[in-house]
Amino acid sequence: MMPTSSQVSKGDQLPELSISVTRGDLVRYAGASGDFNPIHYSGAFAQEVGLPDVIAHGMLTMALATRLVTDWLGDPGRIIEHGVRFTRPVVVPDDEHGARVDLSGKVASVDEEEGTAKLNLTAKCAGQGVLGGAYALVHLS
After folding, report:
1. Residue 64 sits in which domain range?
2. C-alpha distance from residue 67 to each of 54, 71, 93, 101 (Å)
């Protein structure tokens, strides 16, 4: 059921979501996005430019945070605005488990007159935040 402004209050928590990102996911994302930067598939190149290993695409990480919101809303068309800062890369090991990204969200404010809510979002990998200032402004039904 989609949340309505009368059902949502400041401080409400969104259901948490954990997603595993593997190197196979990076290949699929590169194909879909056209972003074939070697930092997303070559460990040697990533290390040559100062990264610890292959990293996930920043926009893929942002999309995972968006999924948290759309799972809660039930309709991606209800997102009015969404933004993040990339603060730390998601390092993706070359194994079957990949990197786990843990996502959570909290209702920061509700505007009942407008029927909107601002959500503050958190994305962590290996216990460290990977997105800063992540938020979404959404229409409530």
Report:
1. 17-21+56-139
2. 23, 6, 22, 12
